[in-house]
Amino acid sequence: MHPSLKRSLVSQRAGRLLLVACLGLNMIACQEAARVEKAFTDACWAATDTLSFSWKKGEVSPHLHLKMQQDYPYMNLFVQVQVQSSDQPVQTFLLNNTLVDPYGRWLLAGDGPTYQADYDLLAGKLADLTSAQPYQISVVQYMREEKLCKIEQARIVVPQTP
Predict the structure, then answer these.
(1) In 3D, which of 148, 150, 158 has the Cα closest to residue 49?
(2) pTM of the full predicted structure?
(3) E strand or H helix at 20, and its extent?
(4) What is the C-alpha end-to-end distance of the chain, expressed in Å?
(5) Tally: H helices and E strands in the chain
(6) Sign, CA torsion 83/57/33/125
(7) How many CB atoms lie within 10 A of CB 73?
(8) SS percent in the chain: helix, strand, coil, step 5
(9) Which of 19, 25, 43, 96 has the most CB atoms lying inside 10 A of its own CB?
(10) How many CB atoms lie under 10 A from the CB of residue 28?
(11) pLDDT digits over 86-131, tens only?
């Protein structure tokens, strides 16, 4: 093999390895940072199980990720979100998330035994949050059930800024 051809092949191989390494680092850097993660005993989210975390204005809006079983008994899920900072009054609001259409078809990602839901917790509320102080955000299930079963896991994540 001619020496210049050999150098060219080595250079191409090194370029590919560098590209793969850069893509891998980019994927790691873009992953979401979980603030709270809770696996529920017996796949039941008790009304007293509060997911609380700190969030600062300027970060991407936090998301609630849920892993639910296929036989979840309701078409929707209400969660109550409470937002407070040291220099603003407490704000409380409900999110009603539709999970299943009127024909019983899931509107979520997944198939088989589990489905995944992803909800922006502060959608439409960011303009109301003007404090430069950190916020304490709490999330509870608000379905008027002491235990809301068929929910395996809840995570609060803050996506990384691009």
Answers:
(1) 148
(2) 0.75
(3) helix 3-29
(4) 45
(5) 1, 11
(6) positive
(7) 10
(8) 20, 45, 35
(9) 43
(10) 8
(11) 998 999 999 999 999 999 888 998 877 899 999 999 988 988 899 9
